[in-house]
Design goal:
The complex is a heterodimer of chains A (about 325) and B (about 325).
Chain A: E1 8-17, E2 25-35, E3 40-44, H1 51-59, E4 66-77, E5 80-83, H2 89-95, E6 100-103, H3 107-110, H4 117-128, H5 133-147, H6 163-174, E7 181-185, H7 193-210, E8 213-217, H8 221-227, E9 230-235, E10 238-244, H9 245-250, H10 255-262, E11 311-313, E12 322-324
Parallel strand pairs in A: 3-8, 3-9, 6-7, 7-8
Antiparallel strand pairs in A: 1-2, 1-4, 4-5, 9-10, 10-12, 11-12
Helix pairs in contact in A: 4-5, 4-6, 5-6, 6-7
Chain B: H1 2-12, H2 15-32, H3 34-37, H4 75-111, H5 113-128, H6 131-145, H7 151-162, H8 165-179, H9 182-190, H10 194-230, H11 241-250, H12 259-287, H13 301-307, H14 310-320, H15 328-336
Helix pairs in contact in B: 2-4, 2-12, 4-5, 4-7, 4-8, 4-10, 4-11, 4-12, 5-8, 6-7, 7-10, 8-10, 9-10, 10-11, 10-12, 11-12
Classes of the chains: A alpha/beta (about 325), B mainly alpha (about 325).
Chain lengths: ~325, ~325
């Protein structure tokens, strides 16, 4: 593997939400990862495990009750290396969309219902670049071509688009200012399988053409297997397992990842019964010491309830593949 | 423009709204056409063509369409010229109060936090203080200061700057829900600043509400102007409807039985405020997202609504085993609403 410089280096990101009463809810804890150019990183996990919170924290768009408690996000921008969390608001506004853009989960809600789609994409361009209307219009048309929507739909309103078209328009908007990193927050969740495949193909194609670094948030393991180069499994705000998609899917070592994979239907082995994981994700404002997954883990033993597991590289796979599980700790060897 | 046309077609179907609009148009025509609608000036004294005697408290049977006042002036002329003052004060004060109210509402709702707390406390204070005594004190104080401001401008300022609290609350609540919508967050993610988001994404969505509310606030402004002029705080040199009633009252029109002096301005006030209220309510009904059905239901919802009237009757029949009595029709109308 060649030596690559990551576009975005996230280190030790912890996010807390202030609650009406009691201690804050810790939505993310010590999350670190890198995003490389031309590569798709998948963030997977159950609802509430911190996938979208990660993206929103990096865009600095957390709701007012949310706070980035610790962490850095080093970004290699046009003006050098910056920590996103240390920028002031005006600097951050320039980073948004020019450097990092986001395609939201439900395109219907993310588009203003009373403005035409073309106008909204032009808005993004004109917010960041001093171009006249005609130039901006030309760029909008080119973006429509890129995502495969007919140009004569530029002046349509969002409700006149189909679900897939809205998602394509959302991607077109995300690409409007030629960002280096694209966050895709469950881009295919509300779409049917055929349209889902089209949108994913589109994302892949655009990524190859533009050399984007993509962070894809999803709970659909099939989407991850198809599109992601590397994957991070989040549980209760912590990284449970991370590595190349191939390695994580084939040699899952964290009991949560194993269960998650068992819970996903496999077309080839249709006779197999689907397994669900008993229990519910942890309450983030009443966290127990030790491993987050311990209360639901079928392999949990003594240290899991008292000690936070460290990251151990998984034997027999590439060094990037790590899992946070006491079962890999040499101290407890022989269990 | 296309939307405006669609809107007008929908509005035209609404009988109540059209009636209100008719009332308003008539009063505006009265105000604009005052010099052409009456042959006299507002300060002219009417004289008997034969005896050349000044016509004091002449009833409508003796002079003109509406008789004369205690100084022999033509009531119809005063009424038309009074419409100019009443309507323009109502309009200007209404617009001013809406401008203040919407700005306060949008700022409080959008920024939240201490901005919201501060602005809403001011709003609460204004809502709680009884308006008329406050206005009396303010106007008296400003007159004492003798700033050289005309009494009419003073009225506009005072009404406009005190009657914005309910508008502010209404707009604020709408903005509170709007700013949580995902497209606003998307706009922030795109890198839009606060002003851009307010101008481009918040304002267009609360605009319908602002328009509907403007008409309602205007009627309040006209009523307050009349009340204040009646209390003698208006411009006594220029006739407004309130001033007319004030004069009628102080010149003993009531004890002289000169109903033609105080009734026309009173009815004119009712006429205009009724028009404003009807138009305002219909506009609000059509434009307020919380009061309208989803656009897809549109026409389809109408027959169902009419059909609903049958349900209580059916229920009644099944429960008692007999047809409903003569009250059926009333019941239907009530439940059909």
């Amino acid at each position: 593997m060649t030596l690559r410089t990551p576009l975005l280096r996230v280190r030790d990101l912890t996010v807390e939400f202030r609650l009406e009463s009691g201690p804050p809810a810790r939505a993310l804890e010590s999350v670190s990862f890198d995003v490389y150019p031309g590569e798709t990183l998948g963030l997977v996990g159950e609802s509430g495990c911190g996938k979208s919170t990660t993206l929103m924290a990096l865009m600095r768009l957390l709701p007012v009750s949310g706070r980035i408690a610790t962490g850095q996000a080093w970004f290699e921008g046009e003006t050098g290396l910056h920590d996103l969390f240390a920028l002031n608001d005006a600097q951050m506004r320039r980073v948004r969309w020019r450097e990092i853009a986001i395609a939201f989960q439900s395109a219907m809600n993310a588009l203003n219902p009373v403005e035409t789609v073309g106008d909204q994409i032009r808005e993004a361009i004109q917010l960041h670049e001093a171009v006249d209307r005609a130039t901006a219009d030309k760029r909008v048309a080119a973006l429509f071509d890129l995502v495969g929507i007919a140009r004569n739909r530029i002046n349509d309103y969002p409700h006149q688009f189909s679900g897939g078209m809205r998602q394509r328009a959302m991607i077109a908007m995300a690409l409007a200012c030629k960002p280096k990193v694209l966050f895709a927050d469950e881009p295919t969740t509300a779409l049917d399988v055929m349209v889902q495949a089209q949108v994913l193909d589109l994302l892949k194609r655009i990524q190859r053409e533009l050399g984007l670094g993509v962070v894809l948030v999803t709970h659909d393991l099939g989407v991850v297997a198809e599109t992601c180069d590397r994957v991070i499994v989040l549980y209760g705000g912590r990284i449970a397992e991370a590595g190349t998609t191939d390695s994580v899917f084939n040699r899952a070592n964290h009991p949560y990842t194993q269960r998650l994979l068992e819970a996903f239907p496999d077309v080839a082995l249709s006779s197999e019964r689907l397994v669900s994981i008993p229990g519910a994700p942890p309450r983030l404002n009443a966290l127990t010491p030790g491993c987050r997954f311990a209360p639901r883990c079928h392999k949990a033993f003594e240290p899991c309830r008292s000690e936070v597991p460290a990251f151990w590289s998984v034997p027999g796979s590439d060094p990037e593949h790590v899992a946070a599980c006491h079962l890999l700790d040499p101290r407890w060897e022989g269990r | 423009m296309r939307q405006l046309g669609t809107f007008w077609r929908a509005f035209r179907r609404n009988g109540t709204g059209m009636f209100g609009l008719f009332l308003l148009v008539v009063s505006v025509v009265l105000a604009v056409g005052a010099p052409w609608l009456s042959p006299h000036g507002p300060t002219d004294t009417m004289r008997d063509p034969v005896t050349n005697r000044v016509l004091l408290f002449a009833p409508p049977t003796e002079h003109g369409p509406l008789g004369t006042d205690d100084a022999g002036r033509d009531i119809w002329t005063l009424l038309t010229y009074g419409a100019r003052i009443s309507l323009s004060i109502g309009f200007l004060a209404g617009v001013l109060s809406i401008a203040v109210g919407s700005s306060v509402g949008i700022l409080a709702g959008y920024f939240g936090g201490w901005v919201d707390s501060a602005l809403m406390r001011v709003t609460d204070v204004l809502l709680v203080i009884p308006d008329i005594p406050l206005i009396l004190i303010l106007i008296a104080a400003f007159r004492q200061l003798d700033l050289g401001v005309s009494p009419l401008v003073l009225l506009v300022m005072v009404i406009g700057l005190l009657y914005w609290s309910s508008t502010a609350r209404l707009i604020r609540s709408q903005v509170l829900s709007l700013k949580e919508r995902q497209f606003v967050q998307r706009a922030r993610a795109v890198g839009a600043g606060h002003w851009h988001i307010i101008r481009r994404h918040i304002l267009p969505q609360v605009m319908p509400l602002i328009v509907a509310n403007t008409v309602l606030v205007m009627s309040t402004a006209i009523l307050v102007e009349s009340g204040l002029s009646f209390l003698g705080l208006g411009d006594t040199t220029q006739p407004s409807w309130g001033t007319m009633i004030n004069f009628a009252f102080s010149r003993n029109a009531v004890s002289n039985g000169a109903w033609w002096y105080y009734l026309p301005p009173g009815l004119a006030i009712v006429w205009v405020t009724l028009g404003c209220t009807l138009v305002g309510n219909v506009l609000e009904e059509m434009l307020n997202p919380r009061l309208t059905r989803h656009h897809l239901e549109g026409e389809a919802a109408l027959p169902r609504q009419a059909g609903q009237g049958a349900t209580p009757t059916e229920l009644f029949t099944t429960l008692t085993g007999r047809a409903r009595s003569d009250r059926t029709d009333d019941g239907n109308q009530e439940h059909g609403r």
